[in-house]
C-alpha cells in the first residue's frame, strides 16, 4: 500500500547558459531586465543550481486545470478529465522562458482510506477455503483543492524547472475510476505529458470549455515518486509517450502479482496482512461520491473480484495485464531506479526485474540500492544530474558512469559504492547442501550428504519467523547453518532454492528465510535477515496452474528468494530456515500440517562474490 525540445522559439537556437550571479539580478517578476538579460537555468558541475531570480515562492505562478484523457473509465460517455496543478517560475510568463518539467502523479494526494484490519481480508482460514467478505470504507471528499501537492516544488522550481502534479483517475478531483494497475493508470500521466507537449487539451474547469495551454513548457518531462507514486512513472513510460525523457521510480511496484503473490502462493505485503487489489482500490477511491457506486460495481466488484483469485493464488490473465515488465516494447525513458534490499512491502525483486529487463532492452538505466526498508531516494546530486542531463541536455557524464550503486552496510545513503552492474559481475552461484539435524541446527555446506535423510516440521502460524530463527530447537521449522565465517561473505543476487518435499495434506504454505546467526537484538534492519522467499507447493510445475498435493508424495520445486546485496560479517553463520506459514506474510491455516523435506533432493544456490573459492576461504577449511 504503498502504501522534447530544449527550448522553443527564440531560445531554441541558444546554447545552455551559465550566468554569473551578478547577471541574475533581482527584479519584479512581471518585468524583464532593462538590459535585456534574462534568467535561465544555471548548471555547475553538471547540476542545476538555485537561481536567485527563481527562488522566491511569492513570485511563482500556480495553475490549476483539468487535462482531457483518451479514455472514459467511469463510463459516462465522455472522456475523463484529470486534475492537474502547475508551479512554475514567473519568468515563464514575463520573459517567455520555457522550462522542463518535474512531474509527480499519485492516487494518494486527496487522502486515503483506513488501515483498520476490518477493512482487509481475514487471513485466518484454511488454504483453498473461501475467505469471509470484508467491509469497504469510504474516503471523505474535498470539492475544492486548487493545490494538489507541494512535493518537489521547493527543490526544482528554484532550479529552473516547473513542477506538475496530477491525481490518478477516480481520486481527488480527477474523473474516472481507480483500477489498481489497469490501462487508465498508464494513459492518465500520458495525457498530462501530451498536454505539456500541445497534443492534448487542458481546461480551466472540470466541465468547461476554456482551454489552458502549456506554452511555457519545453516538452521535456521527468517523473519521480515513491511506492505507488513510483509505479506510475513506469506505467507512463510503457506507453512510449513522446516527451517523457527520464524517470526516477523509488520502491516501485512493477507487477501486482509479485506484490500480492509469490510463486503461486497468496502472500501479503509486509505490514498489510490481508491486503489485496480490492483493498488497495478502496484505500485510494477518493473521487466524486456521485461516481463511486458505478466504479465499485464495474471495477472492484467486477474486474478485480473476478481476477484476483484469493482461492488458488495462481498467475492468470488478470495479473499478466498488471505486469509492467511485460509491456516494455514502447518504453524509452531513461530510468534511475531506487530500492531498499530490506523493503518487505514492495519487495526488491520489483526493481531488480525491471532493471534487468530495461538493460536487456538497451534503455538507459541505473540502479541505486540501499540496505534499508521501503522508500529511500537516490542522493539528490544523482537525481539532479539525471534530470539535468536528460531534461536540459547537460553533458555531465551520468549516462557513462556505473550502472549500479549500492549503499554498503553502515554507510550513509548519500555515499553509495559504485559497481559495474547488479548482481555483482564477480558473483557466482555456490551450491549448498543440507545435513541432518534441522530440528535444532543442521549443517549447510558445499559437501553433499550421503544417504537419504528426511526431516519433518509441523506448521503452526502462532510462531513468527523471528521466534523460530532464535529457537535452539523447534518442531515448527527446519534450520541448517554454515560454520562460523572467518572472513566476510558478500552475497549479491537472488538465492535460489530447490526443495524436495511431501505434505500430509493437499495444501501447505512454504516459507524460507536466509538468516545471519546468531540472531541478535536488531540494531540495523539487515542484522539478522539476509533475505526471504515464499512458494505454493501446489504450483511445483507451474505458477499458472496449481494442483492438490497427494499426501505423502514427494514433489520438487525451485524458486528464487528475494534479491539482495549484503556483506555478512565474519563471526556469523549463514542459516537456511524452512517453515510453512509465515505469520507476517501468508495465510493463517489451522496448525498441524506436516511438511517433510528430503535433504538429498534439496539445495540452495547462493550467489557469492568470488564464488566457491571465496566461500571456502571464508570458512577456512570447508566442513559439513
Summarize the structure in words.
This protein is an alpha+beta fold and 624 residues long. It has twelve helices and 28 strands. A twelve-stranded mixed beta sheet has the order 8-7-3-4-6-5-9-10-13-14-15-16, sandwiched between helices. Strands 17, 18, 19, 20, 22, 23, 24, 25, 27 and 28 form a ten-stranded mixed beta sheet that branches. A two-stranded antiparallel ribbon has the order 1-2. The longest helix has 20 residues, at 289-308. The radius of gyration is 26 Å and the shape is globular.
List keywords for this structure.
single chain, 12 helices, about 625 residues, globular
Our Rg estimate from Cα atoms comes to 26 Å
DSSP summary: helix tally: 12
Helix fraction by DSSP (H/I, runs of at least 4): 10-25%
What proportion of the residues form beta strands (DSSP E)?
Answer: 25-35%
Going across the biggest sheet, name each strand in turn: 8-7-3-4-6-5-9-10-13-14-15-16
Shape call: globular
Low-confidence stretches: 3-35
Mean of the pLDDT scores? 93
Derived structural class: alpha+beta
Terminal-residue CA separation: 43 Å
Oligomer: single chain
**How many strands, which pairing sense, and closed or not: the largest β-sheet?**
12 strands, mixed
Beta-strand segment tally: 28
